[in-house]
Design brief:
The termini are close together. Helices cover about 75% and strands about 0% of the residues. Helix 1 runs antiparallel to helix 2. With about 60 residues, the chain is mainly α. The chain is elongated.
Length: about 60
């Protein structure tokens, strides 16, 4: 498995953990959960870039994929 393919689930898990932590802290303080959740947007961007890197890697170097 290439480094891009291995990093996708890791990035997703880390992003969801950070979002969950942010939501729990907001609930603990009695504040509403933010409408725009930056960790989910950042996670989606990172996963998109990893997918692009994976596609490039697998099409450019097919013998390693």
């Amino acid at each position: 498995m290439c480094m891009f393919c291995a990093a996708i689930p890791t990035a997703a898990a880390a992003g969801l953990a950070l979002d969950s932590q942010q939501r729990k802290e907001a609930e603990k303080k009695g504040k509403p959960v933010p409408r725009i959740r930056p960790f989910l947007l950042l996670t989606a961007g990172v996963i998109f870039l990893l997918i692009l890197g994976s596609v490039f890697f697998h099409t450019r170097f097919p013998r390693f994929g």
